[in-house]
């Protein structure tokens, strides 16, 4: 490791000699079987360090190679009594005590340690630290399809408005989008002024790269590019899109210049928690307009055959407190989710997904639960049109994930309505609000949305 001064090394060596501790915790050999774990009695600081290094379960230390210098950092920043109390829980398989006593999960603490030491074995290229101003729930909002493509009705409408994109959303909806800790949209188009539209494809969408700044006006924190329109202008347009997003410091997930990049999760650290977002597309299922990333060629991450994507979910699950899976799937125009979606959802849940938020169908699909995991099958269109003709009014909405200070996941649906170029957040007094909720509830067999938009499992 780097940046570890001589005095720190001396302390580590002295402690190791005193306790006989090895460099890393021996967590692999700890087998609790069916025995209910009990608090370990900790005598002193030496005992605390030794207990964590030699007796902690792999789950308790987040699977990280915890060593003496990491424990030194925790002791220095949070005090001896804190590390002693943490150590008393070392034989548990839940690491929540780290958060309760430090305000940060073990994954966040490990990230900070790696940043301080320059530990090169830990890849933080797509890890973003965000503020959490009020210290309450962590709020993550998701929208369906958004397009800033040239020549379509919504973009034409925007260009005619005095305040541009800001006039395309109701004031209260803009406030919600901007105030979320994380706002993610599906970027359903390419950013490019080069290349040729794919021959034979019915709908192709591209926006001038200068439009990318509009995302931050809306409060967008990241985008999914795992969809069937990001490649509409072939390899040139696709790579322009990735470059445009990178140059604008807009995190993206689900595609890349090669498979390694396409497979990288996004990680956000906010409110002392680490959240992973992974994305892939099932579409196209029979065509191959949108190229799949390979080890040496650019493209999107695909999940029609989910084995690789499930490996990515599992990897993210070992490195974060929560994993949110964002698939592009389903059948366009069908409000009923298909068996193919349910089958993929099953594989994602078994791989470690905590929440699934889907899209692609251009219409709302319902919310279900699978093994206590909430699944928004499709958020449909959020602000989207396909031609220069303004589309008919449509129902839409946002998925909202709230992570409470206790670490619980609460889910909400925020009903919205699109009409004549403007997406509006509906109030509970609006008849359309109840119509949307009633419609989604009528399609669900395992979830119920109440009049406040709160979603609960329906046993």
Write the layout of secondary structure elements.
Layout: H1 6-19, H2 45-55, H3 68-78, H4 80-87, H5 96-102, H6 106-117, E1 127-129, E2 138-146, H7 153-159, H8 171-179, E3 182-187, E4 190-191, E5 206-207, H9 213-218, E6 222-224, H10 234-247, E7 252-253, E8 255-256, H11 259-262, E9 266-270, E10 273-281, E11 299-300, H12 307-318, E12 322-328, H13 339-351, E13 355-357, E14 367-370, E15 373-376, E16 381-383, E17 394-403, E18 409-419, E19 422-425, H14 431-443, E20 447-449, E21 454-457
Parallel strand pairs: 1-9, 2-3, 2-16, 3-6, 4-5, 6-7, 10-12, 12-13, 13-15
Antiparallel strand pairs: 2-17, 8-11, 9-10, 14-15, 17-18, 18-19, 18-21, 20-21
Give a structural overview.
- It is a single chain.
- Mean pLDDT is 91; it is low at 1-34.
- It is globular and about 75 Å long.
- It is α/β, with parallel strands linked by helices and 459 residues long.
- The protein has 2 domains: 45-117, no CATH class; 127-457, Purple Acid Phosphatase, chain A, domain 2, CATH 3.60.21.
- The strands form 4 sheets. Strands 2, 3, 6, 7, 16, 17, 18, 19, 20 and 21 form a 10-stranded mixed beta sheet that branches. A 7-stranded mixed beta sheet has the order 1-9-10-12-13-15-14.
- The longest helix is centred in the first third of the chain and has 14 residues, at 6-19.
- It has helices at 6-19, 45-55, 68-78, 80-87, 96-102, 106-117, 153-159, 171-179, 213-218, 234-247, 259-262, 307-318, 339-351, 431-443, and strands at 127-129, 138-146, 182-187, 190-191, 206-207, 222-224, 252-253, 255-256, 266-270, 273-281, 299-300, 322-328, 355-357, 367-370, 373-376, 381-383, 394-403, 409-419, 422-425, 447-449, 454-457.
- Strand 18 (409-419) and strand 19 form a beta hairpin.
- The chain is 31% helix and 21% strand.
- Helix 2 packs parallel to helix 4.
- The chain has 14 helices and 21 strands.
């Amino acid at each position: 490791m780097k940046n570890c001064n001589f005095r720190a090394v001396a302390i580590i060596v002295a402690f190791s000699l005193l306790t006989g501790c090895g460099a890393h915790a021996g967590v692999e050999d700890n087998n609790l079987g069916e025995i209910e774990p009990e608090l370990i009695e900790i005598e002193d600081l030496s005992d605390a360090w030794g207990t964590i290094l030699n007796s902690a379960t792999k789950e308790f230390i987040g699977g990280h190679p915890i060593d003496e210098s990491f424990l030194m950092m925790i002791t220095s920043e949070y005090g001896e009594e804190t590390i002693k109390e943490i150590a008393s829980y070392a034989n548990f398989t839940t690491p929540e005590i780290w958060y309760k006593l430090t305000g940060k999960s073990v994954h966040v603490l490990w990230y900070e340690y790696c940043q301080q030491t320059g530990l090169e074995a830990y890849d933080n290229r797509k890890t973003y630290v965000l503020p959490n101003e009020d210290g309450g729930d962590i709020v993550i909002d998701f929208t369906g399809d958004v397009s800033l493509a040239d020549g379509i009705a919504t973009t034409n409408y925007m260009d005619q408005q005095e305040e541009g994109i800001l006039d395309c959303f109701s004031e209260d909806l803009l406030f919600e989008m901007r105030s979320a800790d994380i706002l993610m949209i599906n970027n359903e188009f390419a950013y490019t002024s080069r290349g040729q539209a794919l021959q034979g494809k019915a709908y192709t969408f591209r926006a001038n790269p200068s439009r990318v700044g509009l995302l931050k006006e809306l409060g967008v924190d990241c985008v999914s590019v795992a969809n069937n329109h990001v490649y509409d202008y072939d390899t040139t347009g696709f790579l322009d899109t990735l470059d445009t997003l990178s140059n604008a410091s807009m995190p993206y997930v689900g595609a890349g210049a090669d498979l390694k990049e396409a497979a990288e999760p996004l990680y956000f650290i906010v409110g002392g928690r680490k959240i992973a977002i992974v994305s892939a597309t099932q579409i196209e299922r029979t065509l191959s307009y949108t190229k799949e990333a390979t080890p040496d060629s650019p493209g999107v991450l695909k999940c029609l055959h989910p084995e690789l994507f499930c490996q990515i979910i599992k990897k993210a699950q070992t490195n974060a407190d929560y994993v949110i899976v964002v698939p592009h799937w389903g059948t366009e125009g069908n409000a009923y989710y298909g068996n193919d979606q349910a089958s993929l959802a099953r594989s994602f849940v078994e791989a470690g997904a905590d929440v699934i938020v889907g899209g692609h169908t251009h219409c709302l699909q319902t919310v279900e639960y699978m093994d206590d995991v909430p699944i928004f099958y499709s958020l449909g269109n959020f602000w989207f049109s396909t031609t220069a003709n303004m589309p008919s009014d449509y129902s839409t909405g946002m998925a909202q994930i709230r992570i409470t200070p206790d670490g619980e996941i609460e889910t909400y649906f925020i009903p919205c309505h699109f009409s004549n170029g403007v997406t509006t957040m509906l109030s509970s007094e609006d008849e359309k609000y109840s119509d949307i909720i009633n419609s989604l509830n009528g399609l669900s067999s395992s979830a119920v949305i109440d009049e406040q938009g709160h979603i609960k499992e329906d046993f």
